[in-house]
Amino acid sequence: MVKRVGDKVGNSADTRELSHHESHVLALIHKWQPATAYLVRKTLPKSIASSFSDSPGSVYPVIDRLKSRGFVTVRSLQGGKKNAELLSCTQAGVEHLKAWIRTSRQEEALPEDPWRTRSLFSRILDPEDRKAWLLDLRAVAEEQRSSIIERTEFADELSEIDALEHALLTTEARIVWVDRLLARMVHAAAKTLPDDD
């Protein structure tokens, strides 16, 4: 069953659905609350869950929208930097997060993958370039795999372990896929070689 995220709660007349990025920022605020916007921004690139930008121009407008929608409350940070604020999730924010987590969408079953997209057009490369590209992909995936395994050794939250397991299995599947493409290249090359007389 597909559930939709409805966020018509909050203080704003804006009833559009929060994006995945906005919901992720809200989840980070909830996890670290009370948190400064700076902490949320610096935590974002360390998340195994996404590759969203942590630039001020990306994160701070999202936080402003979450505040205006009534999903986040603000209080001034006493004795801290000028204009520093502590952010916390409202009950409406918590309800949105629960709905966001429970949401299942068909389009998320096979998310966009730049490697898969490039593979559709990779026959434009000559065989040696295509092989070099595939070997580069494999090296990147192996490096990512090692990084995930190392991070798993230090994970102390079950939810982080769950996310790392997904990342590891996805990365290992990419390695298997690249190996299959390389094997097909070898097989195709063997079929085109002239027979020895």
Folded structure, characterized:
The chain has 197 residues and is mainly alpha-helical. The protein folds into 2 domains: 20-107, Arc Repressor Mutant, subunit A; 112-192. Helices cover 58% and strands 5% of the residues. The chain contains 7 helices and 2 strands. The protein has helices at residues 20-32, 37-43, 56-68, 91-102, 114-120, 127-154, 158-192; strands at residues 72-76, 85-89. The chain has a two-stranded antiparallel ribbon with strand order 1-2. A hairpin with an 8-residue loop joins β1 and β2. α1 (20-32) crosses α2, α1 (20-32) crosses α3 and α1 (20-32) crosses α4. The chain is elongated, with a radius of gyration of 22 Å. The relative contact order is 0.11.
Task: Give the topology, please.
Elements: H1 20-32, H2 37-43, H3 56-68, E1 72-76, E2 85-89, H4 91-102, H5 114-120, H6 127-154, H7 158-192
Antiparallel strand pairs: 1-2
Helix pairs in contact: 1-2, 1-3, 1-4, 6-7
